[in-house]
Amino acid sequence: MSIWANVPAGPSLPAETVDSVVIGGGPAGYTAAIYLARSRANPVVLAGTAPGGQLMDTGAVENFPGFPGGVDGPELMARMREQAEEAGATVFTLDAEKIRYASAGDPAVHEIVTASGTVRARTVVLATGSAPRRLGLPGETELGGGNGVAYCAVCEAPLFAGRDVAVVGGGDSAMEEALALARHARRVHLVHRRDAFRCAPVMLERVRKLANVEIHSGAGVTALHAGPDGTLARLTLTGDTGDTDLPVQGLFIAIGHTPRSSLGDGTLELTPTDHLHISGPGGTTGAPGVFVAGDVADDRFRQAITAAGAGCAAALEAARYLEGTRD
Ligand code: NAP
Fold first, then answer.
1. Cα angle at 30 between 27 and 34, to 5 degrees?
2. Helix-, strand-, coil-residue percentages of the chain, each rounded to 5
3. Ligand 1: does its nearest atom lie under 6 Å from the Cβ of 309?
């Protein structure tokens, strides 16, 4: 049975205005929900129709404190949801489709539209995350989730100890992935579509110094091939000289992230990278009672633990805002 079974759906969305709505079912959203519930702000969590965030695509998570030996990404998310519900949050597997922000009011009441109706809230924590860009190759989805295609070497590099892997991308993330993987893997193939790299030169220099990293510039991954056990076995590299077969057990795709920041009505300010702009502590935004947390507002750290920390801060700030409206 799906771990998301028995989660209440649309018809029971509260009709009355609620103190808090959390949008997002990743580490930032569930942490915000735990803190809001414990401050008696009765959070309604719109966790999305595919809840759990990027950890649902991650095999073992070995860098989240409290789990010596690691924990499966989906299990960690199921535990966070359980803890949020235990604290008193009500979780709906619904997507927020649109948000109408109130600019004024005492307190302002924001409207969040879902497929099962509209919920009105005095505070909103937006924790919609970001999506790693995908190459869009056949088999990429099936080979994710621990079968070879991955998006976070910080999380998964040790799983490839002694194996051969490839990294795609020419930015700082790709260099970080290559550096992290080189400490564990036997061989790292760094594949970039151009000869010029957009990463910081110092990062490229570090990568170039490593004996077990081979750089393929002016090349792209054009096909993924699974072995008999369904995990990644080879890729096709296409460059100026044609196609090459590259046997690797891991492919780390580091071609950027797209923040899910387009939900609102244009009220919230965006950064030049399309992340939500934070104007004060705890993910404060320009809209009263609206706070942001996690990867939708973070183009630098993008870790589950930093997202969880930001969710905590946003919830504390939202609780303080609610308190202020009751004075
Ligand atoms: P990025 O800088 O946007 O780089 C993305 C890379 O992926 C580029 O080299 C791009 O190639 C390539 N790419 C994009 N689409 C592709 C496709 N469909 N197929 C193949 N290659 C593709 O993204 P990022 O590396 O994730 O970095 C994002 C931001 O975070 C940057 O500002 C970065 O400096 C920052 N960051 C900083 C650190 C740090 O300071 N330690 C670490 C990580 C990230 P082209 O170059 O040809 O466009």
1. 130
2. 30, 30, 45
3. no
Ligand 1 lined by 256 (C-beta under 6 Å) = yes
Q: Residue 240 and residue 235: Cα distance in Å, rounded? A: 16
What's the mean per-residue pLDDT of the chain?
Answer: 92
**What's the CA-to-centroid distance between 168 and ligand 1, angstroms?**
10
Residue owning the nearest CA to atom 15 of ligand 1: 255
Q: For strand 117-126 and strand 18-23, is the pairing parallel, antiparallel, or unpaired?
A: parallel
Q: Which residues contact 168 (CB under 8 A, 6 or more apart)?
A: 135, 174, 191, 192, 220, 221, 251, 252, 253, 254, 255
**Ligand 1 near 172 CB (within 6 A):** yes
The minimum-distance atom of ligand 1 relative to the CA of 135 is 18
pLDDT, position 34 = 98
Alpha-carbon distance 288 to 104, whole Å? 7
- Please, which residues bridge with residue 121 across strands? 18, 110
Res 55: pLDDT: 81
Residue 43's pLDDT is 98
Q: Is 298 in the pocket of ligand 1 (CB under 6 A)?
A: no
Burial of residue 262 (number of CB atoms within 10 Å: 0-12, 13-18, 19+): exposed
Whole-model pTM?
Answer: 0.78
Q: Whose CA is nearest to atom 45 of ligand 1?
A: 170
79 CB near ligand 1 (under 6 Å): no
pLDDT band at 195 (very low <50, low <70, confident <90, very high): very high
136 C-alpha to ligand 1 centroid (Å) = 17
The reply to whether ligand 1 has any atom less than 6 angstroms from the CB of 170 is: yes
